[in-house]
C-alpha cells in the first residue's frame, strides 16, 4: 500500500506523515516550515490564520484542536 498525499490537489505518493496525515515529501517539508514559522510568529502575537497549508488538512487531524491548546 502506498497512500497518496492528502494535500488537496496533490497526487504524489506520501512518503511521510504530519499529525498522522500522509503527505508527500514536498508538502511535508512545506507544512513543517510553515509550522515553525507560525509558532515563531504566534509568540509575537500574529493572527492564527497564517497557516494555509495546515488548514487544508486541518479537518483530517482530529486532535489538532487539543494539541494547539497544549502548545500554548
Ligand atoms: Zn503533496
Write the layout of secondary structure elements.
Elements lengths: L15 E3 L2 E3 L1 H19 L8 H6 L6 H7 L2
Antiparallel strand pairs: 1-2
Question: Any key phrases for this structure?
Answer:
mainly alpha; 72 residues; 3 helices; binds zinc ion; two-stranded antiparallel sheet
Brief summary:
This protein has 72 residues and is mainly α.
Description:
By secondary structure, the protein is mainly α. The protein has one domain (16-70). Helices cover 44% and strands 8% of the residues. It has three helices and two strands; from the N terminus they run E-E-H-H-H. The chain has helices at 25-43, 52-57, 64-70; strands spanning 16-18, 21-23. The protein has a two-stranded antiparallel ribbon with strand order 1-2. A hairpin with a 2-residue loop joins strand 1 (16-18) and strand 2. The longest helix has 19 residues, at 25-43. It starts with 15 loop residues before the first strand and ends with a helix. 15% of the residues are buried. The mean pLDDT is 82. The structure holds zinc ion (ZN).
